[in-house]
Structure formats: structure tokens, C-alpha cells
Amino acid sequence: MKKKFVFLACIIALFTTVSAQEKSDKKKSSTTDLKRMTWTTSSDQAREMATKGSMYHRNIEYEQAYECFLAAEKLDPNFTIPLVFLATMTRGETKKAYASKALASASGKTEGEKLFASLVDEKNTPESRREIWNKLHEMFPDGGMIGHYFVVTREKPEERMAAAEEYISKFPKEAAMHNLLGYYFMEKKDFETAKKHFEKYMEMYPEGSNPYDSMGEFYLVSGDAANAEKYYALSLERYPYNNNALEAMKKFEEDKKKKTAKND
After folding, report:
1. Under DSSP, is residue 156 helix (H, G, I), strand (E, B) or coil?
2. What percentage of the chain reaches a pLDDT higher than 90?
3. What is the pLDDT of residue 243?
4. Tens of pLDDT along 94-142?
5. Cβ(40)–Cβ(145) under 8 Å?
6. Which of 54, 69, 104, 174 fits 17 for a cystine, CB–CB 3.0-4.6 Å?
7. How close are the terminal C-alpha atoms of the chain, in Å?
8. Quick check: 116 and 37 in contact, CB under 8 A?
9. Is 175 helix (H, G, I), strand (E, B) or coil?
10. Inter-CA distances, 124 with 57, 118, 128, Å
11. What's the rounded Cα separation, in Å, for the pair 219 and 141?
12. 212/23 Cα distance (integer angstroms)
């Protein structure tokens, strides 16, 4: 997808959840209390759907994420996390309605949830949202998801790069950060390093659609249309409704038709 840093506008008002890896880490920690945000919900199934949705969102698989958040909100209409996500993924009056519900839902919940919900306050500026992420990261340094969004909301490219490298060292089993680093290095024209990160991303998240989409874009930018088409096709095998890959494949077909007509 044309992710680069365009998706920052959406992610900058985002949240975090407890991943399976984080749960595993917690079981292993018998002497240290890991600092991660508590999520209050009346439905374990809603929590599972929100966790799955946040995983999709981190991996820029927004269509799947949106469906998961809708399902979570349906199971628990007062669940702050999916409400915040939905507020960041919609527009107009729908966005306002979700934001209002998110802010109201946090009343009486933990300070972390209240702070997280405050991300969707319409009075916020990019600077104030960034400060909220700073506070969340300070409060919950052991949360892999909060750490992820802390990285992508850093103001300057070099700050994002440094934070991303630190994140990977702390959360080596989280795949999505390799996608971000791949784009960071591609922006810097360091294609060799970018490719290594995209390859690692595919290795760690082989069932996802986005790793192949990202590799497709890498080859497209590199001028290798044949490999670009190959990886966009692999992305569509995993999720046939990936709009970015569909548009890319459509463009390939149009180019082929033009070339054929020119040769006739």
C-alpha cells in the first residue's frame, strides 16, 4: 500500500492492546510487574476481536481491522478501545459520534484508558496528541502496541528511526515494525536495507496480505515491474479485497494492453 508515512494521520490518534506475545511475556515474568494498559470490557470475545483488529491495523490492513473493531463494539458498546479506533477510521458525523462514545465510555475506567480516549478529542492538535503518546509510553513502557504507535508518531524521521530500532530490540517478535523500517530506508534510497526489512516482515507474518503488498511496492519503486506484479498477486491471494494491490494489478493490465496495441 502507499503507506510510507501517509498513514500517520490515522495512526496518530490510535491506541494499544495486549498481544499474545505480551501475554506470554507476562507469564514468564515472576519477579517484575510489567507496565501495560488495562482494558476494561464486559466481553472476552470483544477483547479478542479488538486485539485482532489492532494487529491488523498495525500491519496497515485497515479493511480487516475495521471489521474486527465493528464486531468488538457490537459485543460491548461501551468498550473504549474499539470506539477510539473506529473514531480514527471514519469521517464526518460518524467520526464525531464514535469520538463522543469513546470519551464517554472511558468515564470511571483506568487513567490509561481515559488518556487513550482523550486522543480523539477534537480540540487536540498534532502536538498535543504526540504529547499524549509520550505520556502513554511513559506509563506503559512494556506495552508492545503502545510502543508501536509511539514510534510512528515521532515528529522527525530520525526520531522515528531511532525509536523503531529500539522497539525491535525490545519486541523482537513483533513483525509490523519491519514494515515501517522498510519504508524508512526506502525513503532514504537505501534499497538494500529496505529489502532486508521487507523480507523479514514476510518471514515473520507470512499469512498477512500487507507484507507482500509492501514488497510489491518496493519492486515497483525499484523499477522491477515483473517482481512487483508477482508480489501484489501474492498479496491478493491472502486478501482478495486489498484495494492497493487491486489498483496496482489493474495498472499492470492497462500497461500490457497499451504495449500490445502499440506493437500491433
Report:
1. coil
2. 81
3. 93
4. 999 999 999 999 999 999 999 999 999 999 999 999 999 999 999 999 9
5. no
6. 54
7. 34
8. yes
9. coil
10. 22, 8, 6
11. 36
12. 28
